[in-house]
Amino acid sequence: MNGPVVVLVGPMGVGKSTVGSLLAERLGCGYRDTDDDIVAEQGRSIADIFVDEGEPVFRAIEKRAVHTALAEHGGVLALGGGSVLDEDTRALLASHRVVYLSMDVEEAVRRTGLNTARPLLAVNPRRQWRELMEARRHLYTEVAHAVVPTDGRTPEEVTQAVLDAL
Ligand code: S3P
């Protein structure tokens, strides 16, 4: 199989970057994050892209970044939390090894708090989290070859669980 060794999906704040970096270290490969690719390419923050151009434009930029990274990157790849909203992306993920890092809503609220740098949580984090999880949980499950719950686990424990699942 060409492309990433493993693709991490899951909600914002679940620890994709932390676990992805630890995994890359353990596997001796590179780590890449599509949010970082977007910020580098656009020269502005994700929050600014949302404010300046709105979510649909961000999703189009994100789709391009995800498809490019899936084609180019051979290491660990973390996708932005909303990447799975796109149907073509979900279809493409069927030919990759995808691990869903999951957490429950209360854990999500605890971890991200009032994180205004994340545009989708800026108003009422608990309600927004509940709605996000309800809308997306089945999409993460649909693309995942393995689900690794992160509630109450350290990044090291989650990393080991992902390695066990590969
Ligand atoms: C988003 C998740 C974020 C980022 C943007 C939108 C989402 O990425 O792409 O704020 O829709 O869930 P992370 O999951 O890396 O935080």
Notable traits:
single chain, Multifunctional fusion protein, binds shikimate-3-phosphate, 55% helix, 8 helices, 166 residues, alpha/beta, Rossmann fold
Structure description:
With 166 residues, this protein is an alpha/beta fold. Helices cover 55% and strands 11% of the residues. The protein has a five-stranded parallel β-sheet, with helices on both faces. The protein starts with 5 loop residues before the first strand and ends with a helix. The model has no long low-confidence stretch (mean pLDDT 93). The structure holds shikimate-3-phosphate (S3P). Residues 12, 16, 35, 46, 80-82, 118-120 line the site of shikimate-3-phosphate (S3P).
What is the terminal separation in angstroms?
13 Å
Ligands and ions found? shikimate-3-phosphate
Given as residue ranges, the uncertain stretches (5+ residues, pLDDT < 50) are none
Return the CATH topology: Rossmann fold
In percent, how much strand structure appears in the residues?
5-15%
